[in-house]
Amino acid sequence: MKKLLFVLLVLFVTSAYSQDDDFNNGIDFSGVGTEPFWSLKIDIEKGISFNTSGDELKIETGIPESTSGNNKSGIIYSAESEKFNVKVRINKESCNDGMSDNPYPYSVKVTITRKGYKEIREFSGCGNYTYNSLLNDIWALVNFKGTDIKDIKDLNSKPYIEIHIKENKIGGNASCNEFYGTVEVMGDKIVIADYITQTKMNCSEMNFEMNFLQALSGKTLQYKIEKLKLYLISNGETIMEFNKMD
């Protein structure tokens, strides 16, 4: 019976959509739940979509507002449709939907109120942010803040980054030292932790390495992948360009 329910959940939630389909369609976060089966899609720039099995509830909202939750790991998205107010609380914690053996990285709580009524409905489940799966690779730096690295004289070796999305890891070489850190990919954004660990080699030229790591450490950067090239963008300006490494 449990397997049958899981099959029904998968069919209801995914239909013909994959993680990459969601990302390509502008979805930033996807959530699921049971009792009843429900699915959630958040497009930060357009709205929230929520529906239950059998379309008992089918809600499309306007652009959501986001606020921090009660702890650093949480975020709340609030939006409204013509008839409903919708609040989605997302917490960074391992979550199991009770049907599959694969944990999700986030727990989700959806609160829905019908305008003009006191009744509040709550739905609990799990979810994850979408991402471009091509990002999960090794990328060689070719341009840094508008300068081709061929024209940078103080490089000791060619810098590169390596991203492991599911493990929340970023690493690579900054020209002299190797570095390691944690990263979270949320839609088309890369959130890099403040603390980056480095090896302790002392090369003759260190200025580029310092500037490179400062441009990554503690930053939230937009990313774009086109024709095997990765672009990291800050405040609308491309600050790094990489080529995919074979």
Count of extended strands: 19
Secondary structure class reads mainly beta
User: What's the rounded overall pLDDT mean?
Assistant: 89
The residue fraction in helices comes out at 10-25%
Spatial order of strands in the largest sheet? 4-3-2-1-9-8-7-6-5
Low-confidence segments, given as residue ranges, are: 1-17
Radius of gyration, in angstroms, nearest whole number? 21 Å
Q: Main β-sheet, in a few words?
A: 9 strands, antiparallel
Order of helices and strands: HHEEEEEEEEEEEEEEEEHEEE
Strand content: over 45%
Which overall shape is indicated by the principal axes computed on the Cα atoms?
Answer: elongated
Number of DSSP helical runs: 3
Q: Termini distance?
A: 46 Å
